[in-house]
Amino acid sequence: MTVKRDLNGIDRSAILLLSLGEDEAAEVMRHLGPREVQKLGAAMARMSHVSTDQAQTVLSDFRSRLERQTSLGVGSDQYIRAMLNKALGADKASTLIDRILHGGDSSGLENLKWMDARSIADLIKLEHPQVLAMILAYMEPEQAGEVIHHLPERLVGEAMMRLASLETVQPAAIRELNDILEEQLSGETQSLQVASLGGPKAAAEVLNRLETSLSGSILEKMRENDSELAEKVQEKMFVFDDLIKLDDRSLQVLLREIPSEGFVTALKGASPGLREKFFTNMSKRAAEMMRDDLEAKGPVRVSEVEAAQKSILQIATRLDAAGQISLGSGSSEAMV
């Protein structure tokens, strides 16, 4: 199936870094976030057989993109804002823009992003739910989802309620939280400027990273406390069968990024309509092969299907944040 054999963005980046050499690659890595470093490091470790043609293609493509870049070295606020909004989307970029353009820093909170989920959970599990909500809001949704797995269940529902209710947080509150974390992590305290954190969308993005059973349980607890807020969060959530709402071009972009592992498993739990939409956007030969694989595959555990679908949804979320596809709100409102 050709869509699965193509190198994705992470693989191309890994080949580029391997081609640069240790010192140059390390210098590039210094400017990346912890999640990007982890993903790139894992991709580089998997690169055991890179052909000369593949390496040359990646390098040639990179050179072509660089030569087409006309804003190199401009350094203006307008360019930085436009670049980050295009790369991350307006919601995710807003806080980062404030930190960059206004000289803000967040050493204590930033250090959490380099820690493993269990260590973070051990560090914050005795904090007030409002503090947990602020910390979860500051993390990337994927990391926040991992941390939640190691927190006491009684705290998670309350923390998610508060996360969904957050709109703006005063700089003094974030600075105080940062000071506490700095002291616990034995670092130096820095000033911080933050405009906004949290909200229903932030809560939905975290819940989207959890297993269906866990996210459903948390949402139900939220509904018991505030049904209106829980409904707003649920409207922002995006499930696998919602991919049927994508236009053909967006679905084809997504297909190019989906790895072969787990795709058949994910489709085992998909609606017939979504399966057919995937098949329609593949080549005839690839669609026939996929149908054969589905028929040949035996029974699969529901947990395995959900895990495979979550993995594809994470890819879709990344593409949506990069502006390559549009997922919308994930609402179940009917379309005519």
Write up this protein.
The protein is mostly helical. The chain has five domains: 9-68, no CATH class; 72-105, no CATH class; 117-186, Flagellar motor switch protein FliG, alpha-alpha superhelical domain (Annexin V, domain 1); 200-236, Single alpha-helices involved in coiled-coils or other helix-helix interfaces (Up-down Bundle); 240-322, Flagellar motor switch protein FliG, alpha-alpha superhelical domain (Annexin V, domain 1, Orthogonal Bundle). It has helices at residues 2-5, 9-20, 22-29, 34-46, 52-68, 77-88, 90-101, 107-112, 117-124, 129-138, 141-148, 153-165, 171-185, 200-207, 212-225, 227-236, 248-257, 263-268, 272-280, 284-296, 302-321. The longest helix has 20 residues, at 302-321. The two termini are 33 Å apart. Residues 1-5, 71-75, 101-106, 187-195 and 329-336 have low confidence and may be disordered. It comes from mine drainage metagenome. Belongs to the FliG family. Residues 118-189 form the Flagellar motor switch protein FliG middle domain. This is Flagellar motor switch protein FliG.
Question: Which class of secondary structure composition applies to the elements?
Answer: mainly alpha
**Strand coverage percent:** under 5%
Q: Gyration radius, to the nearest Å? A: 21 Å
Helix content: 55-70%
Number of helices: 21
What is the β-strand count?
0
CATH top level assignment of the largest domain: Mainly Alpha
Number of structural units classed as domains: 5
Low-pLDDT stretches:
1-5, 71-75, 101-106, 187-195, 329-336
The chain-level mean pLDDT equals 75
CATH architecture assignment of the largest domain: Orthogonal Bundle
Subcellular location: Bacterial flagellum basal body; Cell membrane
GO molecular function: cytoskeletal motor activity
InterPro entries: Flg_Motor_Flig, Flg_Motor_Flig_C, FliG_a-hlx, FliG_M, FliG_N
Membrane topology: Peripheral membrane protein
